[in-house]
Amino acid sequence: MPWLNELALRCRQCIDAGGGAAQIRDLTAKALSEQTAVPAQTDVDRIVYRADDLLVVSLAQPPFGNTPVHTHGIWCVIGVAVGREDNAFFERGPSGLVETHRVRLEAGECIALEPDVIHKIRNPDAAQSQVLHIYGGDLLTARRTMWNPHTAEELPLDQAQFEAWCEELTGLASKPREAGALAW
Questions:
Q1: So what CATH class is 2-173?
Q2: Predicted confidence band at 176 (pLDDT cuts at 50, 70, 90)?
Q3: What does each C-alpha distance from 99 to 14, 57, 87 come to in angstroms?
């Protein structure tokens, strides 16, 4: 999509000029408000731009898509192009993670996350959503953590295990809630 490539170019220029998460959030909000072409629903996890200090990714969240709790270790801007995305935020407490708040992003909305944010995301709808995630570094090589959704144990992020848990949580989220089912 040309508008995604244009956004990546503007983000690159912003980073080169010393900008950060707040400026990238503003660029993303502007790009989303000006977009005329909706990202293709088949545009799954497309890396639009990748460098050591910037990663722009277009993500397709499946219906009821759900992730385990995780960190990024770098700042992140999330912008919703199609659909919605719910974010639940957590802090470390004396006996584990404590949920602090939730934010629902609708199409056209953006949020900037600090490097130390602990969160999980989900698509609350029965339709696919298309979301932009822009990182202040290369997320694919960043040091990250995730929490086991069964035990709440914090672990170094293992991409294969993270994706397996995403599939499991998404499957559970698409079914009626049963006693003992994993939360949200």
A1: mainly beta
A2: low
A3: 33, 27, 11
